């Protein structure tokens, strides 16, 4: 199968002159000072590149990936998401579904490892391995916008979530990870950046639509999931994921309750109460030590109403309707297209 159409190679992005000879591998170098920048949330700045706002370190990794040094395995799958859209849950589900014949439920890696240890973030890994930026795994994850992804034959599973819950979850997450030398960002300040589109990896709505349109053009290559649908019917969507990956659950597996056991293993309640996720830590690519429990706050649909003002909620709902063209909270979606671009899914089937 042909790969996605390639975008022009992105140059390595640096702060200026450097003595690191690895940079000589890149044919073009653009300094960060040439890119528009805004205040970052977990880094000093985010920089606008190809219409999206990326933290400095992410741009370094992106530069390596765009140099055609990305060499995924033939059956690699890329999980994509805007931050705090259900990434941890999707990582666990896809890892369990993809490896269901390799591990039993009593000694499963998810019982002793955080999902983020098992499924690496592509651009963060690339930041640490500039000349060999491909993780040695079949499952990878990315927060990059679709137009920033390196050319590949990977299948892509994208999950999106109500932006109100995304914003609330992002803000609380940032407070737990924010380096002490960075100034505090208030929720109103974060709201202002988010709605204007220059929050990290934003604009949120453009991020969503990039993958949605790709799912219409390449329906066998890009699966578009809604977090709220996954919460409503995890068993149906686990089967949908397995089918998309080309490894549907057999009748024997279903009769043995394998689907139910996978969704139970990957549930918020199960994962958040595991010792490894309550008290454990893992090594991050940008932050030396990350507490696993910061990835498990609420996992609820609609919790943002307890944190955002009524005015914030109204503004976000209005932007969503204008940008996406449908009511996020009342519409289920599948990769089907009509005149408005997104079609309600009446029976939650492909």
Please describe the structure with a list of short key phrases separated by commas or semicolons.
3-stranded antiparallel sheet; alpha/beta; 350 residues; Sulfotransferase; P-loop_NTPase; transferase; Sulfotransferase_dom; 12% strand; EC 2.8.2.-; 4-stranded parallel sheet; single chain; 37% helix; 11 strands
In a nutshell, what does this entry contain?
The protein is α/β, with parallel strands linked by helices and 350 residues long. 37% of the residues lie in helices and 12% in strands.
Task: Reconstruct the topology from this structure.
Layout lengths: L11 E3 L14 E3 L5 E3 L5 E5 L2 E4 H14 L7 E5 L5 H12 L16 H4 L3 H7 L10 E4 L12 E6 L2 H15 L9 H10 L7 H14 L4 E5 H6 L1 H11 L6 H5 L2 H8 L2 H5 L2 H5 L1 E2 L7 E2 L18 H15 L26
Parallel strand pairs: 1-2, 6-7, 6-8, 8-9
Antiparallel strand pairs: 3-4, 4-5, 10-11
Descriptive report:
- Belongs to the sulfotransferase 1 family.
- InterPro entries: P-loop_NTPase, Sulfotransferase_dom.
- This is Sulfotransferase.
- Residues 74-324 form the Sulfotransferase domain.
- Pfam families: Sulfotransfer_1.
- With 350 residues, the protein is α/β, with parallel strands linked by helices.
- It has 14 helices and eleven strands.
- It has helices at 56-69, 87-98, 115-118, 122-128, 163-177, 187-196, 204-217, 227-232, 234-244, 251-255, 258-265, 268-272, 275-279, 310-324; strands at 12-14, 29-31, 37-39, 45-49, 52-55, 77-81, 139-142, 155-160, 222-226, 281-282, 290-291.
- The strands form four sheets. It has a four-stranded parallel β-sheet, sandwiched between helices. It has a three-stranded antiparallel β-sheet with strand order 3-4-5. Strands 1-2 form a two-stranded parallel sheet.
- Strand 3 (37-39) and strand 4 (45-49) form a beta hairpin.
- Helix 1 (56-69) crosses helix 4 and helix 9 (234-244) crosses helix 11 (258-265).
- The longest helix is centred in the middle third of the chain and has 15 residues, at 163-177.
